[in-house]
Amino acid sequence: MSLSLVEVAGANFRTDEKSDALNTAFMGRLGMRKRYLPARLAISRSLAISAPPEPLSDELEPGKAIKGDTLFGTGTALSVWISLITQRAGDPEFDVRRLIGLVGAHWQRGLVHLEKDWDQAGQDVAKFVKRLVEVAELPTSGGALRSIGGTGIGATFSSGQIDVPIGEIGEDVATKEKIVWSLNGKGGSPHSAIMGGVGSGKTRTAVAMLRSIREQASVPLLAFDFKGDLGTDASGGGYHIDELFGAQILEPPRAPIPLDVLSLSSNGEIDIAEAASRFRESFARLKGSRLGDRQRTALHEAASMALAHESPCELPHIRDALTNYYAEHEMKEDGAISTMQEICRFPLFKPSFSPAEFFGQSWIIKLPPNVAEDSRTMVVNLVLDALDQYLNSLVDADSSADGSRGLRILCMVDEAHQILGSKLPSLSNLIRMSRSKGGAIMLISQSPDDFSGEDDEFLSEMGLVAAFSTNAPPRNAARILGKGANLGALKTGECFVKRRGDQAKKVKAW
């Protein structure tokens, strides 16, 4: 089937009666005299969401109609609107009837999100406009427009609730009932922790779950691989993580991470000072840094100086500023200088992509044991910090009618015991604050003991905890899963699963 502009221009477009009333309300709020103006705004707001809208229910009363040439204009304007709508639908087979239904659905969904934006802006027109600019990822003061089409992390990549089976089988051992986890369901948490000893099948289970998520949403993946086999190990039912997500594999320092990892939201003094403090805290977690009070001050001042004067700012800039600070203050070179020189020996980062561009794609960052420990730690700390700062700076992710939250990114850490227990601020922030922003964190580790160094509430923020056979003391397993969770007695392919707000169940995962 095909569309002609003449047919579209003469067609009647409408949404439901309730949404039409909201359309009228926005005319008054924004001082618009024509019905098609808030309708265009609503359709545009919906088109900013990559997932298709839910069709209008046949039971809803229809609203007033607007002619196609009034709603969309004529000529080039009409062609652009139709191109955007059909492109989002992802189906070349289109006729006018289907277009009318799709426009009505976009119109309805867009008004729902405009109403949320209006409330979150405190019903202030200036703040409302600013919020729409942020949603559209337009520059607020000069600069180039970001890419269009949902490729940045500002877009959401899901619509509706995502139910994830636990592994390849996902069956309650006692009842044979299928067990699923509502990853982004209303009131839940999208974060998960999967634990188990070597060969227990924890990674295999995680890969099966990631496959299910990917089948339901084209969300990008950021994976940290401390073993070095995620992109090549087909243990997850013959599926490779890189193939599942179309991920590019990075192996720093052989292949620097193409991220402007020290990117600033602004050049204001407060933003620079906060960024310098975050860098100092990441640096302080390196074993050889040995930061006393003078060293902490020196590193903060050096980072502030580099961030204020270099754009993009890179690690060698901070190294040079730190060396100059030591010389100016007649400080002897110490562990801080030598560690900074060591992590700059090879390029870990190359600022090719902004955070929006980088986190809108899928990546596997390989950090196997042969990579220097300080380099591995610095990479994880800085990338997670960049993700935390960027993701939590965005407006809340879109919600579907069922209350489920749209996804923007999955972040997976395999062999997470490599970083657990060190109280990384960025990891804690992502676990506690990224749900509303569309972030989902998956931690794969060896034992409940690995989480003992984190805050007591760390695991309570998880929407799903799954534990395979380990030698963890029963008290640690009981603290997480409840009494009776004997991990040492689990059979091959079995795990204890605890969903948030639910009792632990014994599940056959594979």
Low-pLDDT runs: 139-152, 233-238
- Helical proportion? 40-55%
Number of helices: 17
Instruction: Tell me the distance between the termini.
Output: 45 Å
What is the strand content? 5-15%
Which class of secondary structure composition applies to the elements? alpha/beta
Main β sheet profile:
10 strands, mixed
The CATH homology group name of the largest domain: P-loop containing nucleotide triphosphate hydrolases
Shape: globular
- Identify the CATH architecture of the largest domain: 3-Layer(aba) Sandwich
Radius of gyration, in angstroms, nearest whole number: 25 Å
- The average pLDDT score comes to 86
What is the spatial order of strands in the main beta sheet? 4-16-15-14-6-13-12-7-11-8
Name its key features.
17 helices; 510 residues; Arc Repressor Mutant; two-stranded antiparallel sheet; alpha/beta; Rossmann fold; 3 domains; 10-stranded mixed sheet
Give structural notes.
The chain is an alpha/beta fold and 510 residues long. The chain has three domains: 5-136, DNA sulphur modification protein DndE (Arc Repressor Mutant); 163-260 and 354-508, 3-Layer(aba) Sandwich (Rossmann fold), CATH 3.40.50.300; 269-343, no CATH class. The protein has 17 helices and 16 strands. The strands form four sheets. A ten-stranded mixed sheet has the order 4-16-15-14-6-13-12-7-11-8. A two-stranded antiparallel sheet has the order 1-2. α3 packs across α6 and α15 (373-391) packs parallel to α16. It is globular, with a radius of gyration of 25 Å. The two termini are 45 Å apart. The relative contact order is 0.13. Mean pLDDT is 86; it is low at 139-152 and 233-238. This is Helicase HerA central domain-containing protein. Residues 189-273 form the Helicase HerA central domain. It comes from Sulfitobacter delicatus. InterPro entries: HerA_central, P-loop_NTPase, T4SS_component. It holds the Pfam family DUF87.
